[in-house]
Amino acid sequence: EQNRVEPLSFGHKTKIVFLSGALGDTIGWMGQVERYQKHTGESINVFCNHRDFFEAENINYYHRDSPLEKEEYNKSFYVGFYDYDRTYHGSVPDDCANVITPIMQNGLIGMASDILGFNKIDEVRPSLKVDESLTPELKELKKQGVKKFVTLASLSTLQQKFWNHKGGWREIISYLKTKGVAVASVDLDTQFGSGRAEHGFPKFTSIPLRSIDMTGLSLSRAVSLINGGLFHMGLSSGLSWLAWAAGKPVVLICGHVNERYDFANPYRIQNKSVCHACWDRHKTTTEALDNWYW
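Now predict its structure.
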């Protein structure tokens, strides 16, 4: 592989810091950390959220507030969203000599690949800790007589990430039920939103009424439930990335970003005959991200 990563630097100690704590960002970037470690042979300390969720050889996982981040390292990388037209994570650190394609022309995995010095994007699923035993949620579904099910995460952190087609999820759930397939909602909350009704949207959007409410689970129990289903349905958000990392098929409905932003997926659905991929066409500052209806 032709790249800027120096191979097999055994004995070197490297620090990699994730500047975003979002679940999807963390999962997408962690695969590139594993790729970097295997290529270089270096001992890696990675500072991130959701650290208890990963397990790979020669990589140590620490929370961002760990004092170990202040130690001296042979190399340091700061993985975030850098762009000439964005202020989300500031400018590229002065000691980063690698060429980074701006996020508006790049993808989540591509950002980490560039920052770590690879010339070519190669998707890598990170090594997850997945409990494949019969969790309480799987036992409950079995008790209800559910033989086949899929998981659904229909809520997210901005209105533009939602599937805003009225009644869309309800229609899909009704269809799946005719095929003997139940749908379990695995979002963190039963409803989410800005708390104010604007632009024709309600204060809060709820999970579909005909889905089985499995919300509020820890991530470890959520991934176990996802792992037990036929496939996962969702948005361009953290739980879709979690399902992808666990190796499950993901039916992903997305409007706000182009396909290069997410993992490669034959089941990605986007209507390109209407306004779409606004994430790639507009400046996204921290102030804009505070606006639910941006």
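Confidence is low (pLDDT under 50) at residues 84-88.
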